[in-house]
Every structure is written in C-alpha cells, then in structure tokens.
Specification:
By secondary structure, the chain is an alpha/beta fold. The protein has nine helices and twelve strands. It has three domains: 81 residues, Winged helix-like DNA-binding domain superfamily/Winged helix DNA-binding domain (Arc Repressor Mutant, subunit A, Orthogonal Bundle), CATH 1.10.10; 95 residues, D-Maltodextrin-Binding Protein, domain 2, CATH 3.40.190; 104 residues, D-Maltodextrin-Binding Protein, domain 2. Helix content is 38%, strand content 22%. A hairpin with a 6-residue loop joins β1 and β2. It is rod-shaped. The N and C termini lie far apart (63 Å).
Length: 317
C-alpha cells in the first residue's frame, strides 16, 4: 500500500469522478485508475462502485475513507515537524536586555541555548526599557528583559523575574545619612541621581513624584546602578537604586528606605502576547523561561497578564 494510492482514492471519493480526481492530483486518468485498482487488490475488496454515471463509494470504501484521511494527515504532520526543526536549526533569535542585568545569568542562558542549538544565530542588544519594549512590539526583538514601569506595557506577555524595594543612597556625610527612612515628599528639594529616562525605575520614580505633586530634580543620571552608588558616595546627591545594589553598603554609602509611598523595582522577561513568530524564537523562549527566576501562567505562544510580584531578588534598571 502506498500513500499515493490513498491520495488518489480520496480524490475520487471526494469528486465522484476519475476525470476530476486526475485533475486534482495532476496525474493522467489511467494512472489514477490503475493505482486505485491496485489498492483494491491489496485490500481484497472493491472500494468504488463504477456502475453508474458517478463513481460511488462501496460499503468497504466508506469504511476505509477515515483511515486513509488519518494516514495522510499523519504524514503531513510529520512533514510539518521536520520543516519546523529545519527552520529552528537555521533560525535566528534576537534578544534584548537592559544594562546591568548580568546577575540574572543571561549570558549563561544564551550559552546553554547555543550549545544545544549551535546553528541558531543569536543576537543580543542592550538598551533602555522603553526602547526594548518598542523593539519587541515591532518584531525587531523576539524577547527582552526590561524594567517594568508603573503600568505594564500593553500587548506583551511577561514573566516577572525580580521584584525588590527601591532605596535612597547617600554619602556618609550627607544631611540624611543618619536617617533610617525618608518620605518621598522629603525628596522634593533634593538633587537626585537616577537612571536615565526610558528605564523602568526612572518611570516609577517620576510617576510617584507626580502623584505627590512635584517633579524630581535629577542632578546626575547614568545607566549603571553601581555607578550611581559611586556618585552618591562622592556627595553628588541622593541616588535612587534597587536595594540589592547597596546590600551590603559599599564604602562611603548609606542606604535609606523610601516610604510613604514605598517604591519597588521590577524586571521581567517580555515577548509579544501573540507569541513567537519562528520555531527558533519559540524554543529560546521556553528555554529562557525555564532558566530565569520567577514564573508565569502564560504559555510561550499565548497571551497573559503580568504575574504577581515574586519574592525580592536582585533587580536592575
């Protein structure tokens, strides 16, 4: 029994005519007729009633039809699986990351994926959260680790990977150095040291200050949170940082809790809510979600709201 015999038989059954079946499968009519007769000989029963003007299925033929369709469908599924695997082996994955997310182990995650799929081309782009979010939306990036603003970006599925308090950091001789905490409103006149616009932490700071009725005074900004701590240690202002950056406090730095309201920094793995567009990206997303901390209820190719905050872990911009 050959697959083409099943295909020709189904073409005749569907069209009720050897002539139309031959046109559908693009084979000469005698060839279709010969293959169907060979199938009937192998099964030991006629499958088609040729006595009338239209060809009809016999009782045996009617019983065979669903099995013939299932056999051809299984072959199509096998071909699709091979095509997807071939696409994966020759695929490309474009990943984005914010500055200083090394503690999340992304380099190791990329290395492990490359070891498993050495023929997949991987590109890594560094940028601000706003820039990376736009790139994921437009399809320039397949996924990115971003800092979350106050309102989660629409159209993206998220896996939260870090969630921790934001604190102030000042030099040892700063007027606030002796305090354990400071209200957000007390920072109204303070020169602040912050991550640049377009980062999740900067967005949360500006939103909180706006809700308190003032705009923050940004004296210095830089993309590296550890550089911000160094600037604070040199007496240049109060730095707004993830708590993990000053735990334990570097020399010359005094961390201060920010209260009323408390601020938090969150990082998330983000991808388009509609799912990956190629097998390589889909496989990388599964790998990354299993390797990164945190969890999400959304499947790699599904849509989901952001997950609830995870226990505090190290955060970055």
């Amino acid at each position: 029994m050959e697959l083409r015999q099943l295909a020709y038989f189904l073409a005749v059954a569907d069209t009720g005519s050897f002539t139309k079946a031959a046109e559908r499968v693009r084979v000469a009519q005698p060839g279709v007729s010969a293959q169907v007769r060979q199938l009937e000989r192998e099964l030991g029963h006629p499958l088609l009633d040729r006595s009338g003007r239209a060809v009809r299925l016999t009782e045996v033929g009617t019983a065979v039809v669903p099995y013939a369709r299932a056999a051809l469908a299984a072959v199509d599924a096998a071909r699709q699986a091979v095509d997807e695997l071939t696409g994966l082996l020759r695929g490309r994955v474009a990943i984005g990351m914010i500055t200083s997310c090394g503690p999340l182990g992304l380099p190791g995650i990329l290395a492990d994926f490359h070891s498993r799929y050495p023929a997949v081309e991987i590109t890594l782009t560094e940028g601000g959260s706003d820039e990376l979010t736009l790139a994921v939306h437009t399809g320039t990036l397949d996924a990115a680790i971003i800092g979350l603003p106050s309102a989660p970006p629409a159209g993206l599925a998220l896996q939260l990977v870090t969630d921790e308090p934001l604190v102030g950091a000042v030099a040892a001789d700063h007027p606030l150095a002796g305090r354990d905490s400071v209200k957000l409103a007390d920072l109204r006149e303070q020169p602040l040291i912050s991550l640049p616009s377009g980062t999740g932490i900067r967005s949360r700071l500006e939103d909180a200050c706006a809700a308190a009725g003032f705009a923050p005074t940004i004296a210095f900004e830089a993309s590296d949170p550890f550089l911000l701590a160094d600037l604070a240690a040199r007496g240049l202002g109060l730095a707004i940082l993830p708590a993990s950056v000053v735990e334990p406090p570097p020399d010359g730095v005094r961390p201060i809790a920010i209260v009323d309201p408390a601020l938090r920094g969150q990082l998330a793995l983000a991808w388009r809510a509609s799912g990956p567009t190629n097998p390589a990206a889909k496989s990388f997303l599964i790998h990354a979600r299993e390797s990164l901390p945190g969890s999400s209820d959304s499947p790699p190719d599904g849509t989901s709201a952001p997950t609830p905050p995870a226990p505090p872990r190290r955060a970055a911009p």
